Amino acid sequence: MMASYKPSILVAAGRVALQQENQPEVGAMFLMMDLFDISQLDITLDNRLLSAEEAGRYEKGIALLCDDVPLAHITGFQEFYGRKFKVTPDTLVPRPETEELVHHVLSTIRSGVAADIGTGTGCIAISLDLEADFKVFCTDISSAVLEVARENAEVLDSDVIFRQGDLLDPLVTEGVKLDVLVSNPPYIAESERALMSRSVLDHDPHLALFADDDGLLLYKRMIDDLPLVMKDDSYVFFEIGHAQGAALTDYIVKKYDVTVHIEQDINQLDRILWFRWCE
């Protein structure tokens, strides 16, 4: 028997609740919205029956949701800064905290040459390109990841420039000089693996999650190479782990005469580290 939106969501939420404690009705609702490109208003009005094909797709999606598969890996995309970005098993699913990083960059500077290091889906680079007047480079070590980012740029009509390579190496090779460097690199320490959810460990690429030296290695490598790519009076922005601010600040100020700022995210956790280069 075919059902409309709301009854389908309530039944699905009951199934999800048996596996997950965290707002099962919200997950069931967003799955329906994403699969069928409908709004919360459509669900509230509840004036259309799901077809047999739609009901089957929703049933398969709910089964995956019950198995801790992230919503974005079920639907194949994630909303970020008002746009849909394709995600694959090769890419980290963009997080709301990273939207805050983009917002902070745009609140500070809106033009010049920018680079997103470790671009993943391209969500940071493409958002900066489309929201402001930057010439944007982005780098990633993975060719599979860059293919996803290129596809997102094409779909969203972005002119981001892609380079494959390790962190800043492609920019150094080309002699690119930056007004803005932004990066959300892998920053989780191996010691934190036991604290992470099955959903993340089973479905996000570990290359995009973990880093040596208590999660600090890739930051330190970028920080060491900043003189090779930064213009005078430029800006550096990092998304960081909530407990990494003090260690990174100490590492930076021992090397350079800069003032480091730490900004908290919506959950009141340290999340953005930034500074003006050679102020």
Verbal overview:
The protein is of the alpha/beta class and 279 residues long. The strands form two sheets. A seven-stranded mixed beta sheet has the order 5-4-3-6-7-9-8, sandwiched between helices. β3, α7 and β4 form a beta-alpha-beta unit. α11 runs parallel beside α12. The longest helix is centred in the first third of the chain and has 15 residues. The protein is globular.
Q: What is the fold-level CATH name, i.e. the topology of the largest domain?
A: Rossmann fold
Rg estimate, integer Å: 21 Å
Order of helices and strands: HHHHHEEHEHEHEHEHHEHEE
Total E-strand runs = 9
The CATH class of the largest domain is: Alpha Beta
How are the strands ordered across the major sheet? 5-4-3-6-7-9-8
* CATH homologous superfamily classification of the largest domain: Vaccinia Virus protein VP39
Shape assignment: globular
**Arithmetic mean pLDDT:** 88
- Profile the largest sheet: 7 strands, mixed
Please identify the structural class as seen in this structure.
alpha/beta
N/C terminus separation: 68 Å
Tell me what portion of residues adopts beta-strand conformation: 15-25%
Fraction in helix: 40-55%
Summed up, the helix count is 12
- Number of domains as seen in the coordinates: 2
In terms of per-residue confidence, which ranges show pLDDT below 50 for 5 or more consecutive residues?
none
Question: What is the annotated CATH architecture of the largest domain?
Answer: 3-Layer(aba) Sandwich
